[in-house]
């Protein structure tokens, strides 16, 4: 048993999917270079107003109530990908028959989705959730299902053995219906000749073609005529050719007028995120990376954007998440915060959004561990803090492999990685079974006056912190451990570990002698 999903008037459907507010408007799609643009597709509202295919754009513009949109290959590509996502959510065996048609094998799926009519209605409802109005047909072979979907509206079920009877009323032109891909000139010429021949014979529907004698038909049209007759009878049999391309989740909107403010941009981003998350849901995917590309009217590239390969008049931002997530509202807030911190700087003409699919995260809380914040809320909170203090000041500390002072950097906070690092620290402490003193750095370092004795410090006094003074009762050093020998100022400081005798107790400090300036500094204290 096979099902076919067909999107009528595909070019119009691709535009309506991106702009659902045009559903009740008369819509025409044009294509070509100015001033030779021609109408290539119209909806029913435009037909009632007299707009016809092959009419020039200038003629269509005379009707002020008709909305005109340029044909967008990228929007059609994303609509086609959404169609395949819908099909693959019901069966692993899906054939990409054409830009507007997908065929899927439903063998063995009854236990999951029910009877054939229930499956067909579920497919139609899921396609509607993805923004596509479709015809769905179920039949015993792929071609019969495809022809029924292209010829009948809504949901059609053809029982086995009833193919010839139910397909008989379809017009002969359904046999030659193609997707949105263009045919070659020779194929178009051959199709026109066969249609003209059928017209002269008075063959206008499948019933008439199925009733022709096979031998006489073969003598006049050859094997092509017999193939068309088998299709008209619903008796063609072939193997399904499944689609093997990796899933791509991307959506595009081309605006009629350039967007200047971030508020209308957020409205369109919300629409794109809803579509992408709906597609991810149908394939049981989450996402951990969102890539936003904005085509701008006029934009001068910065050095950083030139390094990452941005094309002229393009603005790109990448949103990387610590864990796989699927929440369009959260994604919208994160993108808004990112765009507020990094505005495009020019009017926007086109919005392109890509989501990298990722498997849903699996996690189980421990019985004896304190509850942790939800990753979605934590990521949103960190993004808001980064908008106030800067991205480089938010995250978790990561030590660098260097002896240089303050050798650390801030990286994105990832809860799982933090837990793993804590476990590693605990295991290391158990293995070493020794205490490690912590050095608490003073920022900035405290300037000190040092009295030397035999080349080493004998008395230290700090004016800014009065408790840091006294005689040196113990010292170790000096060490030149700044590292980074390739830098000009490497090995330019001597470090001492000292113990100062105060009135009440003894304290441990790190004392630094800057060899370039000659100054002495208290850099930190040991716990």
Protein model, in words:
The protein has 527 residues and is α+β, with helices and mostly antiparallel strands. It has a six-stranded antiparallel beta barrel. Strands 5-6-1-7-8 form a five-stranded mixed sheet, with helices on both faces. It has 16 helices and 20 strands. The chain has helices at residues 10-18, 44-48, 57-60, 73-88, 110-113, 116-129, 142-151, 163-167, 185-201, 206-210, 214-233, 262-282, 303-307, 328-341, 375-389, 415-432, and strands at residues 2-6, 26-31, 38-42, 66-70, 94-98, 101-105, 135-139, 155-157, 249-259, 286-296, 314-325, 348-358, 396-399, 408-411, 439-453, 456-462, 469-479, 493-501, 506-514, 520-526. Among the domains are: 164-238, 5' to 3' exonuclease, C-terminal subdomain (DNA polymerase, domain 1, Orthogonal Bundle); 249-358, DNA polymerase, Y-family, little finger domain (Dna Ligase, domain 1, 2-Layer Sandwich); 375-432, no CATH class; 439-526, no CATH class. The chain starts with a strand and ends with a strand. The longest helix is centred in the middle third of the chain and has 21 residues, at 262-282. Helices cover 35% and strands 28% of the residues.
